[in-house]
Design brief:
- The chain is of the alpha+beta class and 227 residues long.
- 37% of the residues lie in helices and 33% in strands.
- It contains five helices and eleven strands; from the N terminus they run αβααββααββββββββ.
- It has an eight-stranded antiparallel beta barrel.
- Helix 4 packs across helix 5.
- The chain is globular and about 60 Å long.
């Protein structure tokens, strides 16, 4: 009986050790597999890229434009359906988008009700401002329907540098020629650094204020359009 007990205990100990060793080996194999998994290969830059998470870009932009939370929310919501397209052909980069200006005109009329009586007047005033702004540049163009308040914008002149990993636009990307997607429309040309992770291209411009150490980042994220 003593011999049988010793064998049983020995067998249990052996099985326990084998179980622990097996788990350790499985965990090591899993860890090795995880660490050796390669990142998704970047896709070709040439072609069309559709904006994703564009609301994040808007929120970062309007955080500086509008000091109160209500205004930031209303303007962000006004353009949350905008989804720009980035087209790359060789070193040539073009940005296009369609923007429904209805909600923004309503907000503008509300925010300036001491000067603007309604949305229609707001539309007329802002369309005039936009037209003057766009005429100043050879790279900005668009079509505007003054009945539906739909604007289709086009921004050309972007230059891709794959060595520096930059995209430089002669004018700051904007909506309707009046709402710059950066801290200011005057800081042109504007340089965006870019990086690619799989089929996602992220380009971002930065602004640093040396006097107070404020560091602002303006990103735009795009997903490759597969055809």
């Amino acid at each position: 009986m003593k011999m049988m007990k010793k064998i049983s205990l020995w067998m249990m100990s052996l099985l326990t050790l084998l179980f622990i060793a097996g788990c350790a080996e499985q965990k090591q194999e899993q860890t090795t597999a995880e660490t050796t998994t390669e990142a998704p290969a970047p896709v070709a830059l040439e072609g069309e890229w559709q904006a994703v998470d564009f609301r994040d870009t808007l929120e970062r932009t309007f955080l500086y434009y509008y000091k109160d939370a209500y205004s930031r929310l209303k303007v962000t919501e006004a353009f949350e359906d905008v989804s720009p397209t980035l087209t790359i052909e060789g070193t040539k980069v073009t940005l296009t988008y369609t923007a429904d200006m209805n909600k923004y005109f309503e907000f503008y009329a509300e925010a300036n009700k001491d000067k603007i009586k309604d949305k229609a007047e707001a539309a007329k005033v802002l369309a005039a401002v936009a037209q003057r702004s766009i005429k100043k540049s050879e790279d900005l163009s668009g079509t505007y329907n003054d009945e539906t308040y739909i604007y289709k914008g086009k921004q050309e002149g972007g230059v891709l540098d794959t060595n520096a990993k930059t995209i430089v636009f002669p004018d700051v990307p904007n909506i309707f020629g009046i709402l710059s997607l950066y801290v200011s429309s005057k800081e042109a040309p504007i340089t965006y650094h870019y990086e690619i992770n799989g089929d996602i291209l992220t380009m971002y411009a930065e602004k640093v204020y040396n006097e107070n150490g404020l560091h602002l980042v303006y990103p735009m994220k795009f997903k490759k359009v597969q055809k």
